[in-house]
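Propose amino acids for all 313 sites.
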């Protein structure tokens, strides 16, 4: 979806207003609204980072949660032993290192094989940690003395902003155009001189760092650590749903998709808790069938009709 200079300015203006509102939220809202904003920022950071690999290259990962879980686990096992800023930064570094180590073998396959393999890797790591915890006689962990909710909120705000900025910068760079060429035709891109292996691996590593730090921060929010919760496959599924609902391959799609699914989910939890999954599934299926291009696709269609109407007039 190509946008004009005026539309670009409008998007930037809306983004600045939204960022300012989110930054000001802890100063006037009650703890419930702050916690809700924290969750929204978490999903935004995770979705933006997922799009950095999967939207730009077409390699759809179902194992994004593994980076989130590794980051959370590192903060938990180093709690009150390491300075908190160091632990959060180390969580991102650990997730990026893990992506670098598994990247070459995992990225050798494509399509449904890549989807299944990334899911399998996430489950393997989850059950390996579960086995290690069981061997040590630990079923769960409690974090005493976690930071205030406002501190956690602003840490997540910084991560969401960083993930969004990273996707914007990569998407507009030569590197981003190279990633898109892999999505269109990887063999042709390699023939034209695109360093396919290096580009894929770098995108994979970059997409892992933010989720590692997000998991670290959210572990501080929950204060009660259970391996199955931080490695829950539904985290990956939700991220994919938000990205697909938003549409496009730039930072606008994740923002729109995250806002839409988050608001709908909150509404359904309140209004129809018993039929929540049924209604949400129908909404997602409707988008896939009627608007496969997501919200950005709908906006592009409406802009096109408006432009044709203006020309006709």
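Proposal:
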């Amino acid at each position: 979806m190509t946008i004009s200079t005026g539309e670009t300015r409008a998007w930037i203006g809306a983004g600045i207003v939204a960022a300012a509102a989110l930054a000001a939220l802890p100063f006037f809202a009650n703890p419930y609204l702050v916690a809700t904003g924290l969750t929204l920022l978490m999903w935004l950071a995770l979705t933006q980072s997922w799009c950095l690999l999967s939207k730009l290259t077409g390699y759809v990962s179902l194992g994004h949660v593994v980076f989130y879980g590794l980051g959370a686990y590192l903060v938990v096992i180093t709690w009150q032993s390491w300075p908190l800023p160091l632990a959060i930064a180390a969580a991102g570094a650990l997730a990026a290192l893990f992506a670098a180590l598994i990247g070459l073998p995992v990225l050798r396959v494509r399509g449904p094989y890549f989807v299944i393999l990334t899911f399998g890797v996430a489950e393997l790591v989850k059950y390996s940690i579960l086995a290690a915890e069981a061997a040590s006689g630990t079923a769960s962990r409690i974090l005493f003395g976690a930071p205030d909710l406002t501190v956690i909120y602003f840490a997540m705000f910084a991560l969401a902003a960083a993930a969004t900025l990273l996707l914007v910068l990569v998407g507009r760079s030569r590197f981003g155009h190279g990633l898109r060429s892999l999505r269109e035709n990887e063999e042709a891109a390699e023939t034209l001189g695109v360093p396919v292996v290096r580009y894929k691996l770098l995108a994979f590593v970059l997409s892992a760092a933010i989720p590692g730090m997000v998991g670290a921060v959210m572990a501080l929010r929950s204060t009660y650590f259970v391996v199955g919760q931080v490695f829950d496959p539904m985290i990956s599924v939700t991220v994919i749903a938000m990205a697909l609902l938003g549409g496009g391959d730039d930072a606008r799609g994740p923002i729109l998709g995250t806002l839409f699914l988050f608001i709908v989910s909150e509404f359904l939890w309140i209004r129809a808790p018993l039929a929540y999954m049924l209604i949400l599934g129908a909404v997602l299926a409707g988008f896939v069938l009627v608007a496969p291009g997501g919200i950005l696709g709908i906006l592009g269609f409406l802009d096109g009709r408006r432009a044709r109407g203006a020309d006709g007039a």
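Residues 2 and 8 are 10 Å apart (CA to CA). DSSP finds 13 helices and two strands in the chain.
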